[in-house]
Amino acid sequence: MGLLSSLEFETSGTALNEQARKLGYEGARTLCDAAEDGEAVASAAYTHSAAHIAWKIADVAALLGVTRVALGGSVGLRPGYLARVRESLAHFPERYRPEVIHAELGADAGLIGAALWAGREATVT
């Protein structure tokens, strides 16, 4: 069994950036662009990342029964990435395939969530 790590360390923009550099790309953005243009090496790394996310989405659906998952972040908001996540998720039984969409708040979703949480915490204490 391999080492366990968080999803952030395996599929985030930062993780894909590191993978991109190992493969000879400037960074995650250039790897994603190359993958979406059909470049084989970049496409394999991009698809691997999307398949990993799909696997975790299926796990969460099985465990918690979620019916919708929103992807955000620099990689998750790319249309090509969402399509690959959906393609990978299609290999799982239907009950483990929630709807996958882009986060409605886009790249600012995490920042907005943190601000709302901080505001609530300030009111409670």
Automatic annotation (TrEMBL):
The source's superkingdom equals: Bacteria
Q: Where is the signal peptide?
A: none
SUPFAM superfamilies membership = Actin-like ATPase domain (SSF53067)
InterPro entries given for it? ATPase_NBD, ROK
Q: Name one GO molecular function term.
A: kinase activity
Q: Which UniProt keywords apply?
A: Kinase, Transferase
UniProt-listed Pfam families? ROK (PF00480)
Return the protein name.
Answer: N-acetylmannosamine kinase sugar kinases
Q: Which organism is it from?
A: Deinococcus aerius
